[in-house]
Amino acid sequence: MPSYPARKISTPDDTLNVLQITDLHLSDVSATANTEVQNTASKSHLTCKQSFEAVVKQALGEAIRCDLIVVTGDLVSEVKTATYDHIFDVLQATDIPFACIAGNHDVTNELGHDLPFYERKLIAQPADPRLLSRHLIESEYWQLLLLDSSVPGQVAGYIDDTDIAWVSEQLARCSKPAVIAVHHHVLPIQSQWIDAHMAQNTKAFWDSLAAFRHIQAVISGHNHQEQIRYHQEVTVYSTPSTCYQFKPFNDDFAYDTQAMPGYRWLQLDNNGRLVSWVKRLDT
Q: Are 153 and 108 in contact (CB under 8 A)?
């Protein structure tokens, strides 16, 4: 079984196939207590725990070899070690290298789920030590740079100057095509309520990337929907949650009750070409 976290990936054909999953939002994983928000697009009304497990099973059952799993934050809805233990057990059982970063829910508990969002109390929590920050994963032809944009006690993220300096140093040192993974989205997505909680300090982040032509993509979660944007010749991917989805292009909070849980594939070729697509849960 590969050791955690993934650091070096070798493949038989020099193509790196990456499965991105994000925003799992598991709470208590006991069978009797798991009362997650149900996905109303699914006739089977899966809980977030069941949906996460179904996504992993479906993705790994596809006719594509998976070389790496990247989990881009919000693994939990309430910070509990037992919940992380379950998630890591599921991922380790795949026998595929993987790596996880934190989202806002991994460092913040919300009190008052029955209240409107702006009335809830946010309580800072320490991140689980298995969640990574400034972590590098390399294959022969690619590099993946994982950042922690979470801020304890806050919904919005922040990419601090130390993160930016680390990314710049790595990109200057290594000319392999690069993908950056972060939880919070780094470009607005035309949805006022969630854009108020995107990553902050992004001007400095993008300014630092301008000097590097080999950065190919940024992948993120947080906004529970599929979007593709472009900035400075970099493709910026937002990926659906493995659980519930948010309605795109809404200025007020709304669930997308017609959208199924999803996940993203990234196929990284040995010539620097990147192809990516989203799949939705069949259930």
A: yes
Q: CA 155, 20, 190, 42 torsion: positive or negative?
A: negative
CA distance 128 to 229: 31
3-state secondary structure 46-97: CCHHHHHHHHHHHHHCCCCCCCEEEEECCCECCCCHHHHHHHHHHHHCCCCC
What's the token pair of residue 21? Answer: 């999953």
pTM of the model: 0.95
Contacts of 280 (CB under 8 A, 6+ apart): 240, 259, 260, 261, 262
- Decide: helix, strand or coil at residue 208: helix
pLDDT at 37 over 50: no
pLDDT band at 111 (very low <50, low <70, confident <90, very high): confident
Torsion angle, alpha carbons of 225, 246, 63, 92, to 10 = 100
Instruction: Report yes or no: 269 and 253 within 8 Å, Cβ to Cβ.
Output: no
Gap between the terminal Cα atoms of the chain:
29
The DSSP bridge partners found for residue 76 are 26
Q: Of 43, 67, 21, 76, whose CA–CA distance to 262 is shortest?
A: 21
Is residue 280 over pLDDT 50?
yes
Please give the DSSP secondary-structure letter assigned to residue 128.
Answer: P
Would you tell me the crossing angle of helices 202-209 and 161-173 to the nearest 10 degrees?
A: 10
Angle at 179 between CA 132 and CA 124, to 5 degrees: 30
* CA–CA distance, 102 with 183 (Å, rounded to integer): 7
